[in-house]
Design goal:
Layout: E1 2-4, E2 19-21, E3 34-39, E4 42-47, H1 48-67, H2 69-86, H3 88-107, H4 126-137, H5 139-159, E5 163-164, E6 167-168, H6 181-196, H7 198-217, H8 229-232, H9 239-275, H10 281-328, H11 331-352, H12 361-388, H13 395-426, H14 432-435, H15 441-447, H16 452-482, H17 491-510, H18 515-548
Antiparallel strand pairs: 1-2, 3-4, 5-6
Length: about 550
């Protein structure tokens, strides 16, 4: 145990512990394996194995996808099919473990441990903290799937099951609800909430807690490898750690590229709907390039001057759009749907989270497996970002705020936007949102509400700003990992990763597989990183046990 005197920052830019903490004694110094220098007017400070291996591997991948688009498209398609079909049980089972682990932290004495030391105080207010959590954690996805997913599950459930050669070919969750609109709504909303509720936020919470605990309380670098010190000891500073951090870079970059691809297609669809802008790869490439340039400006402004301000703006706009749809739409129906959807979620949760013996293979593999791999691939990025802004919170406060409150807000968002579209179909006979492509469903739903041009424009702005905050935050995280845990590495490095993320998203969109190529890379990088997260739970338990002994 060490009683640390309060300091603002360590030489590596990480806040020093305040009060009593259980420091891990190690000879490793943050940045000791780094290579420093200047490239023209730009300085660099990079962790040699992680930066070089991840950077060269990703560049080789980009070159392969561009040089052999047909072959790479076929490989991507094979990857997606093989991993989702062969490892769906693993993704679903692992996500269940993460939820149970987080709930355990809330009710045990470990929840009393304070991140940053017994005397640490929060760096951000609740409003600023929540804004950054949502902008980083769910941004583009909420805009893309807020209408499309409830409507998709409702339609497939209402259509019932279909069999071919003894295998179900429909996409309905569980046993469907053939011909029963009320049951189809309940099942569709429960399936949607399942993908946006406790499970994804538990994945984020595990990684964020591990990073915050071992950096702020244990005095280790702010990198993924640090969480594994209780398991591997000083070996984490060698190739074991290099592999872990490199996997984290891959997962983060491809997870972000997928989100940027979804964001670009939705922004393109919205701009076409409003202004007649052509839909296609050229427009999407221009959108990604332009928004990456905006993200670059945000990167140069830093965390407080860039991401924090944009996150608060986005939270305000999202709240206004939510309130508008709630009040102008079928308000009483939406309020009732919120409550009934929560009850349906609780009712169907055991069946939806069952990892074995599923008959709804298209749903469990094509939806749930992909989602869990996507959230896991985002977890290094979102987890490290949450860790950066969560110092001073107790573990219980942290888990409740990161797990339960965002889950409820996601339920509210899906109930309002998805519920409005469902009401339009069931009560008004308006099926444009139901019939539209995924990226257009939001705008078709808004079409029949007042001020549709303004609200659709706000929706596009939200997609763009979520796009920017995700790119900016992701660049910050990848740069921290590839700088050996330094959070004050030269800004040009973060700019490099910001540009690189946009380039990877563009290449994958232009490849033969398009969006499926993005999804394939998410699922393939999420698989090995799931093992990393499972080990991380054990390491966090050991770390919290040591911190708890300080008070005993």
């Amino acid at each position: 145990m060490a009683d640390q005197s309060p300091q603002d920052l360590t030489p590596e830019g990480i806040p020093s512990p305040e009060g009593d903490v259980e420091i891990i004694e190690t000879d490793y110094e943050i940045g000791q394996d780094n290579v420093e220098g200047n490239l023209g007017p730009f300085g660099f400070d990079i962790h040699n194995p992680v930066f070089m291996v991840s950077g060269l591997a990703i560049m080789a991948f980009v070159f392969y996808a561009l040089a052999l688009p047909e072959q790479s498209g076929a490989v991507f398609s094979w990857l997606f099919s093989s991993v989702t079909k062969g490892f769906d049980w693993f993704f679903i089972g692992a996500a269940n473990i993460f939820v149970l682990f987080c709930l355990l932290l809330i009710i045990t004495p470990w929840g009393n441990v304070r991140l940053g030391g017994t005397e640490a105080t929060p760096d951000y207010s609740y409003i600023g903290w929540f804004a950054m959590l949502f902008a980083a954690g769910m941004g583009i996805g909420l805009m893309f799937y807020g209408v499309s997913e409830p409507m998709s599950h409702f339609s497939s459930s209402l259509g019932g099951t279909a069999m071919e050669n003894g295998v179900r070919t429909d996409w309905a969750p569980l046993g469907a609800a053939a011909g029963n609109e009320a049951d189809a709504v309940r099942l569709g909303m429960a399936a949607t909430i399942f993908h946006w509720g406790l499970h994804p936020w538990a994945i984020y919470a595990v990684v964020a807690l591990a990073l915050a605990l071992f950096s702020y309380n244990k005095g280790l670098p702010l990198t993924i490898r640090s969480a594994f010190y209780p398991i591997f000891g000083d070996a984490v500073w060698g190739w074991v750690g290099h592999v872990i951090d490199t996997l984290a870079v891959f997962a983060t970059l491809f997870g972000l590229a997928t989100s940027l691809g979804f964001g670009a297609t939705q922004a393109n669809a919205g701009l076409n709907e409003l202004f007649g802008l052509p839909v296609g790869p050229t427009t999407e490439v221009l959108l990604i390039s332009g928004i990456t340039a905006i993200a670059l400006v945000s990167v140069l402004r830093g965390l407080d001057g860039g991401v924090k301000i944009l996150s608060e703006i986005n939270m305000g706009l999202a709240f206004l759009l939510l309130v508008f749809v709630l009040l102008i739409g079928p308000t009483a129906y939406l309020i009732k749907l919120f409550g009934s959807s929560l009850m349906a979620y609780v009712e169907y949760l055991p069946a939806l989270s069952n990892p074995i013996g599923r008959e709804d293979v298209n749903f469990s593999q094509g939806w749930t497996s992909f989602y869990w791999a996507w959230w896991i691939s985002w977890s290094p990025f979102v987890g490290m970002f949450i860790a950066r802004v969560s110092r001073g919170r107790t573990v219980r406060e942290f888990v409740v705020c990161v797990l339960l409150i965002p889950s409820l807000v996601c339920v509210l968002w899906m109930s309002v936007f998805g519920g409005t579209a469902l009401y339009q179909v069931i009560n008004d006979g308006y099926t444009a949102a139901q019939d539209a492509s995924l990226e257009l469903k939001l705008f078709k739903m808004l079409d029949v509400l007042p001020l549709s041009a303004i609200t659709s424009l706000v929706g596009i702005v939200l997609v763009v700003v979520f796009f920017v905050t995700s790119s900016d935050s992701g660049s910050l995280v990848i740069d921290t990992i590839t700088a050996g845990g330094k959070v004050d590495a030269p800004v040009p490095q973060r700019a490099f990763w910001c540009i690189f993320e946009g380039a990877v998203a563009i290449v994958l969109l232009l490849s033969a597989g398009g969006l499926q190529s993005l999804q394939s890379m998410v699922i393939s990088t999420g698989l090995p990183f799931t093992v990393v997260l499972l080990l991380m739970c054990f390491a966090v338990a050991r770390g919290l046990h040591a911190e708890r002994k300080i008070k005993d």
